[in-house]
Structure formats: C-alpha cells, structure tokens
Amino acid sequence: MPQTTESEVRSYSRSFPTIFTAAKGDVLRGHDGSTYIDFLAGAGTLNYGHNPETVKRRLIDYLESDGLTHGLDLTTSAKLEFLNAFTDCVLEPRGLGYRVQFCGPTGTNAVEAALKLARLVTGRTNVIAFSGAFHGVSTGSLAATASNYYRSGLHTTLGGTTHLPYPDSPLGEYDTMDLLRRLVEDPGAGTAKPAAVLLETVQGEGGVYVAPTDFLRELREFCDRHQILLIVDDIQAGCGRTGSFFSFERAGIEPDLITLSKSIGGYGLPMAVVLIKPQYDIWRPGQHNGTFRGNQLAFVAAAAVLREYWADGPDGAFVTAVRGKGREVARRLGASTAVQLGARVRGLGLMWGLDLSAVPDVSAGKVSHLCFDRGLIVETCGRDGEVIKVLPPLTISDENLSQGLDILLDVLQCAVDGTSAA
Ligand code: PLP
C-alpha cells in the first residue's frame, strides 16, 4: 500500500498494513472485509473496546444538544460530570484526595506537567527515572524516556534526569533501592538530590517488566524520608489495565503525583490528567497553560465508562473479570513450547509480555506480522522489539480472547518448528 503523503515517521501503520474502515468491541474491520481480533487496544487507549454502544449514544446525545466541543478550560457540564464521576467511582472509594489537573491531550503532556510541578515544589531539578522507561517523546518527557532510539530523535542535551536500573530488565533482577540509597544518602555520591522519582509500576514499552510490590513500598518510604516526590506514570498501566484502577493499588501506596491518559478518555478520545496531592498543588492560575485542556467529548465518554464499569468499588465485577482473563492469558502463554525453550512470560492484570529473546531463530516482529495475516493484531515491545505484548481491550469476550491466543500460539508453534518464516 503506497504511502506518499504521510511522513516516514508513521509507525503502527507499517506493522498493520491495511486500511481500517470500522471497529466494534474487540474486532477491527479492513477495507477488503477482513476482520482482526484486537490485542493492541489502540496502544492501551481502548480498555473499554471500540465504540461501546452506551458511550456512543451519550456522545451522540451530547453533540445533538449542541454541548460545547472546544477545548478551553471553561467550566462545562461535561467537565463537571467527569469530575463527579471520577470522585464518586475512583477517588472516594479508595480514600484518595487528589486534585485533578487538565493538561494538553496526550500522555506526554501529563508527564511534562508532573515533572514541572515536582521541580517547582521542591526547587530541585534532577529526576530519577529508570532503564526501560517510556514517558513520551516531547523534550521534558524524553529526558526521562530511556530508549536510545527515541532519544536519538533530539539533537540537544536531555538534562535533569538520572536513570537507574529498573528492578527487572533484560539483564536480570537488580537491587534498585540499594543504588538509590547510595546515590541520595551519600553526600559524596556526585548525584544532585532529586526532585522526584518517576516510574511506571509495570513498564509497557520497555518490555512488560513488573516492579515488585516490596520495591514500591520501600520506594514510597524512601521518598517520604527524603522529601522527594513520587510520581507514578499510569498512562498505560492505569484505568484497570493491571487488574485494579491504578497500577500501584497492589502495593497499598499513594504517589504524590499520578499521570493518566490513554484509556481515561473512555472511547479512545484524547485526554490526559495529572492527579496532585493537594499540598503540592502550588500552580498559580494559568501558570501551566494550553488551548486544548478540556476535550468535552472525552469528558462525556470518560464519565460514562466510569459510571458503567467502576461504580461498584475497587474490587468490583469489572476488574474481577479482568483479573480472570489475565490469568487465562498467563496460563496459555506459560504452556507454550516457546516457554519450554526459554521464553519468559511477564505481566499483571491484562497486560502481558512474552519475551522471545532467549528463543533461537524466532523473531517477535515476524510473529506479529504472521498473526496479522491470520487476523490478529498484536504488537511488540521491549528494547529491540523482542517481546510480544498482549494488550486486548479489558472488555474482550472470552471467545475472542481464546481465539486470539489460538492464533498467536499456533503462529509461535510454527515458528519454533521452523515451518514458517518467523
Ligand atoms: N507514559 C507511558 C507509560 C506510556 O506508555 C506512554 C505512551 O505509550 C506515554 C507516557 C506517552 O503518551 P503519549 O504517546 O500519549 O504522549
């Protein structure tokens, strides 16, 4: 399919080369009538699937009522509905008292705002980030993103961050807390005291690495002791993806700042927020500004999905089902021949990675391409695209989850047997 107009920078369209014309729930349709089970979920933006019917109705009603659609941060009925739903369904049931900052519409906008606020609050510059981290590609976020591939896209100094090894990585497990203590508690260590520690509790783009709960608790305690802000980037792992609304709930910790984007918009609609502990909400009015800070349609959709899926408490029916589906994915991947040959299965909730780096002659990229030919959209992640990432809509039917796994495991088996080009 020749693409002469769009920039070379395009990416997902290269991996999944068809023209998509429609999508519903967990299935996309191509222009030639082909259908594809979705294990990508718009890179995590579609936790509730494509075009959920009840949300679509709300959006149509809102448009027909001539509700505001522009993005200035005016107070609108749509924004109030979202804030009320977020308070009722997410914050209050978890005893959380965060303020909500609306920033620009994408994930990196939220990370930029969080980093800026942490520096403003502490008067310090340095931020600790981690190997394998992905936080976006605008300059401030890119300084915290670890991948050399993305970092090489900017020919200027990416300053103000120190990267430490994440507790798990392609090089194996690591005692990150020990190194952090040595850097911060030794006045002769040569590292500036950080304003913040920024992390994904489950790394997505880096290869689906899960931070242990003990590490998260120790990190929280360490940050408290040194008046360092703890920022959790829950842009990919949040909104139910890891089997709870926030990915850090399993550790019982409360970050100082939280970034959310991707699925918070409810319908794949762009929206990003920073959640701020009230004592750190020291912004002056308009100090961090922007034209598009209030995507009204995203507010409408977000309020609708929060009320539909999250009204029955932190361990309600929806997340319980997500955890069950996640266990099934882990079971099926874990039983594959690839695992007997050294592949690793990592993940939480419905966010799973199958790391093929130790399996000779099997390329995750080729497995993804062959899956696409067989009607499954599944992407790769990791340092060098060596991990198959299973990230279906959280609402995926048991039948399509099972059928998608059948395709993936069959393609893998052929690759292992050497009966395909994978
Ligand atoms: N943070 C995390 C954890 C992400 O996974 C991403 C995107 O994949 C981002 C930040 C950046 O979000 P965006 O691509 O919307 O700028």
TrEMBL record:
Highest taxon, organism lineage: Bacteria
Cofactor(s) it depends on: pyridoxal 5'-phosphate
PROSITE patterns from the UniProt entry: AA_TRANSFER_CLASS_2 (PS00599), AA_TRANSFER_CLASS_3 (PS00600)
Keyword Transferase in annotation: yes
Pfam annotation, one family: Aminotran_3
Keywords: Aminotransferase, Pyridoxal phosphate, Transferase
GO biological process, one term: ectoine biosynthetic process
Coiled coil (residue ranges): none
Gene Ontology MF term list: diaminobutyrate-2-oxoglutarate transaminase activity; diaminobutyrate-pyruvate transaminase activity; pyridoxal phosphate binding
Top EC class of this enzyme: transferase
Entry keyword annotation includes DNA-binding: no
Pathway in which the depicted protein is active: Amine and polyamine biosynthesis; ectoine biosynthesis; L-ectoine from L-aspartate 4-semialdehyde: step 1/3
This enzyme's EC code(s): 2.6.1.76
Similarity comment: family membership: Belongs to the class-III pyridoxal-phosphate-dependent aminotransferase family.
Protein name: Diaminobutyrate--2-oxoglutarate transaminase
Originating species: Actinoplanes campanulatus
